[in-house]
Each structure stands twice: as structure tokens, then as C-alpha cells.
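User: My collaborator and I are trying to settle a disagreement about how two of our proteins should look. Neither of us wants to argue from intuition anymore, so we agreed to look at predicted structures for both before our next call. Could you fold the first one, then the second, and keep them clearly separated?

Assistant: That sounds like a sensible way to settle it. I'll keep them separate. The first protein:
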Amino acid sequence: MSSAADLETTLLGPVLPGRDCGDCTACCSVLTVDTPEFSKPAGVACVHVTDGGCAIHAVRPTICRTWFCGWRRVALPDAARPDRSGLLVSLNFVRQPQNCFEGVSINIRLMPGSDAIGSGMAGRVLDALCGGLVPVWFSDGARKMLMHPDREVAALVLSGAPAPAALRGEVAGWRERYGMFG
């Protein structure tokens, strides 16, 4: 892989046709940005956000130019767009992961005031994302929880213990793909 963008495309696929941000600016306020080019804390709207989107979209910083919302890449319902669902889906790259499931993973953030859990949208998004060999984390703002792989498989992958026959293939797949992060 030549870049994080290539890895993102490999794991999540290309930006889907018709999946433009529109007037959604959730990433512009939810995410922390800390680069030499631009920085802002999480939960604070970017100074360039307007009612119509980004005021400097054509010349936006590299971090903004190369970040893609998971909703734009994964076949999620239209209602899962962050400003509609209260969920922000992204691919995360952690330079010093605490375990192999944090190195490269999908993160679903529940935005403040969201009813995505009560409405069932969080469940639909999790169902759509938890099928492959990409770890999925869910964050409600207070804690981050590993949702995929399930607890038993994750424990076996992390411990290195032999897997029971029914889980052997799945555990081996996770170890092969994410062993470099362990």
C-alpha cells in the first residue's frame, strides 16, 4: 500500500456514487484535528464551517481533503448520514495501538444528543460493518467498546491461545491480518 488513503479504499471501498456530504458538516465539529497545517479540538466547529458546508472547500487543508466519512464509502442507509443519524463512521489509524484491534479499525462515534441507539440506526450500522476482518469499535463519548470481532474471538486472538475447532478459521484469519499490530 502506498498510503493511508489506499488502505482506506482497500478496506472500505471507494467513495460511492451519489454519496456527497451535501450540507452535512458533522466531521467538521466532532473530530479532533491536530496537524501543523490546521488544528481544532473535538466538539468544536471548524472556523470555516458555514450553513452551506465548508467555506474553503476548494482549498481545504490536507487532513480534510484526505479524510472520508464511512457513510460515503459503505453501503449504509441514506438515513445513516451523520447529520441524520447522529453516528459518524470512520476508518482509524493508531500509530501506537494498545492491541492489534486498534491499529487499523472502523470507529462508530455516537454524537451528542443522538437517538441512534433508541431508533435502531446504531444496530443497522453495526450489522452492515461487522461482517469482515476489520475491527469495529463503538464510542458513546464516555467509553470505546470493541464490537467486532466478538469478545470470545478477540480474547483468543489477543491471548494466542488455541482456538476451539468452531472458531479456528475465524481466529486464524484475524491473527493473520492483524498480527503485525500486536
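The second protein, kept apart from the first:
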Amino acid sequence: MKAIIYCRVSTDKATQETSLERQQEELIAAAKRWKFEISDIISEKASGYDLNRPGALDMLDKIESGKIDAVLIQDETRLGRGNAKIALMHFLLKRGVTLYSLSHNGELKISETDSMLLDIVAMIEEHQRTLHNIKIKRGMKRAVAKGYQPEKNLKNRGNRNGRERTEVPVEEIFRLRQNNMTFEEIAATMRGFGFKVSKATVHRRYKEYMERADKRE
């Protein structure tokens, strides 16, 4: 199994530098005991309350791009503190990555408080996903009710002159906007019909359309 070793101290003091080196040495030895193949060793000097840490972000990128089974740390405070720690724990748990710590001599035992907070975060995330899907369906129904015909803009649906899914039907964006739909609602509707667009993209295309219309006049 592959693991990332993550070491952190909060200051640039000489004593902290020694602590950083000691963390790394002890975790390398622990990785051998726990039968892990070390994929990367990440060490940094940054506050545990800060999520915007180059080392931590690099660790997340490596986890998303490759098969990492575990993250090895000295103790849970090295991963982070406060909300930053919970956010990182949530990210790792969602991706099936196990935390191992020297303080627990093996798999990290999450405290009852942290476990409760992680459950709350997961529950909120699920409700946000449900709400997002409801908004998409609502936007799709409104668009169709106001005359939008998605089959005219999707390729390989019996319409040879249809557009590619990755393109945006600008005329429809304009028409939906004229029907008092917000840019967020239009973007959600477009995504529901297969167009990968953001609110910013919809807004930008609408402005471009309006600028071209002004020039024609």
C-alpha cells in the first residue's frame, strides 16, 4: 500500500526545524513497520489553522491524481487545527484514505467530537447536493415551459444540425434571460441538459451576445 508522509511545524525557529526532521525520520521508520510504500514525503512550515498551505494542497493533489492508501502523521495536530483539520479529514475520508499517526501507533482514532463534526459536514454536503439537483430540475422545467427545446441543441439525438454538447446555445441563454431567469438558474438548466457551463460562462456569453447585437444596430 502507498502512503504519503506529511510533516508540519508552525514556525521557522531552529527548534522547530529539528522537530520537522525528527517527524520525518520517525514516520519513515513507522512506514516500514506498517508495511507502507512511501509515495511522497511532504514537510512544511505553516499554521495548522490555515488551509492555504502549499504542502497540504500538494498532498491533496497527489491523492486526487494517484492511488494513495494512507497519510502518515506524527499526530492529528500536524494535519491541522480547528476547522482546517476537519476539512482535511473530511477530504481524506471521502477518498478512502486512512490516517496513521505515531501518537496512536497505527490508524488514527478520531475523537468523538471530531467524528460528530465530520458527520455534520457530510450531512450538510449531502443536503447541498440534493438542493443543487432540485434547482437543476426546477430550472429545466421552467425552461421547457417557456419554450426551450433542448433536442434542437444536442447532437446525436436525430438532429444532424444540432450543436455539440460542449457548446452553449447563446440564443437560448438570451431568451431565458428575457424570461427573467437568473444567470445561476440558466447555468443550472444548461447543465441539466448536458452543457458543461458555469454561471460565469453564461453571464459572459450573454454579454458577448448583447455586444454583438448592439454592433449590428
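Some points you might bring to the call about the second protein. The first strand starts at residue 2 and ends at 9. The beta strands are 2-9, 37-45, 70-73, 98-101, 106-107.
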